[in-house]
Amino acid sequence: MNNTRKEVNALSFKVVGAAIEVHRCLGPGLLESIYQKCFAIELSERGIAFQQEAEVPIFYKGHWVSGHLKCDFFIENLLVVELKAVSEVLPIHHAQLINYLNLLQAPKGILLNFNVVNLFSHGQKTFVSKHFGSLPE
Fold first, then answer.
1. pTM of the entire structure?
2. Domain ranges of the chain
3. Of 3, 67, 91, 119, which is the most exposed, with the fewest CB atoms less than 10 Å away?
């Protein structure tokens, strides 16, 4: 991985901007699947490369385990984005994203909850993995 922390942070900024635009246009109260489709459109329009419903590999004690585990978005092989449309983000949602970060060896992840009045101040939480710290400045 030849990326820097600065580049990963800049990508995060662009991705959050795309999410804010989706939320600005649609507001809260819709199904997660609707936000997911619109977020994919917004990322595409901004020229951001991503995999939607990206398979997350599970390697356990020397064995590959098939579990059909998928994250909502894996952006530029650096950033895991999980979308929610829930009344409350729970610790299990945080654990889910952290597991995806570790399994994909991604440096950063963003949990976005579209069921809020203001996505910027209340609907996003960013996580960094041990891989983020190993990136150059």
1. 0.93
2. 5-131
3. 91
